[in-house]
Amino acid sequence: MRPNGWQIRQLHRENLNWPAALVDVPREAWPDPASNPYATGSICERVMRSRKFLLVQWLETNGARRLSVMRTEYGRNGQPLDGITWDDLQRLKGEAGYGGACAIEIFPPDGDVVNVANMRHLFIVNAPPCMWRKRAKV
Hints:
Blueprint: H1 5-15, E1 23-24, E2 43-49, E3 53-59, E4 65-71, H2 86-98, E5 102-104, E6 119-125
Antiparallel strand pairs: 1-2, 2-3, 3-4, 4-6, 5-6
């Protein structure tokens, strides 16, 4: 159910109570995983929140780590705002403790697309062979 105008204004006021950078959300404040109809068997390891973003760290069934990121701000249509930039994702990856790690975002085959929210997912991986690197200064 989408929030109404009053609820959106209340969420905006609540956002002001959070810092600009991500901080850990206490476990007792995490949502109940049983209430997620899109649960995939992944284990929620960590939830972090800032004024503008929510980041959930998942341990996937194959051992991979996934960072799910969404904005905490809502538009007039009652949907979380879109527009998470590359710079936002890079900064949030670092704030979550993965600044020294590589992460990838996957665009799946059409038949495997799950698009239920304005959310982005980063998978923490070893350096992929297709990654660009800075040239060493000579």
